[in-house]
Amino acid sequence: MSRFIVFLITLFSIGLTLSSCKGERDKGPNPYGTKSLIPQSPYAMLIVESESCIYCKQLDRDLQRDPQLQKAVEGMDVLRLLAESNARVKYRLDGKEGESTEEDLARALGVRAYPHIIFYNSQGEIILRIPGYTPPKTLACAIRYVKEEFYKKENINQFLQREGCV
């Protein structure tokens, strides 16, 4: 009799598990849909990162903890792209608009170093690329360079030196 009860409990548990899994499967392969990299703000900062990149993790900590960086990114979309991901993304970048995987877009953008930061405007025009990790003070200045449109007047190196950011 006790074996029969154990059998019924096991059968009931399996049934519950299968019914909960079925609910997940019905939502499709990506229940959250396609991620958009098209900015809602005038400017965006796209961080292309890798799962194994320690400097990517440091940049993430900087963005969460550094008050100067937090203030600098206000009013700018901060977006992320994982170079090894097959998740779908919609983009408007570098004169092209479309949809692809994160991995394919990172490759198409020629990203070879991580983190790789790409600043662009709402039309998708790339303004500035920063390959590799940048300390918070310098990154905050680069963000200001883009947001305040100094890029229309001088190159980034002149701006960073003039502002004492390096």
Characterise this structure:
- The chain is α/β, with parallel strands linked by helices and 166 residues long.
* Arithmetic mean pLDDT: 84
- Sheet-strand content, in percent, reads 15-25%
Proportion of residues in helical segments: 40-55%
Q: What is the CA–CA distance across the termini? A: 78 Å
Please mark out the parts with pLDDT under 50 across 5 or more consecutive residues, or reply none: 2-30
Number of strands: 7
SS field, number of helical segments: 6
Helix/strand/pairing category: alpha/beta
Strand line-up in the sheet with most strands: 3-2-6-7
What is the structure about, briefly put?
The chain is α/β, with parallel strands linked by helices.
What's the arrangement of secondary structure elements?
Elements lengths: L1 H24 L9 E2 L6 E7 L4 H12 L1 H6 L4 E6 L5 E6 L2 E6 H7 L7 E6 L4 E6 L4 H12 L8 H7 L4
Parallel strand pairs: 1-4, 2-3
Antiparallel strand pairs: 2-6, 4-5, 6-7
Key traits:
disordered N terminus; 166 residues; 4-stranded mixed beta sheet; globular; 23% strand; alpha/beta
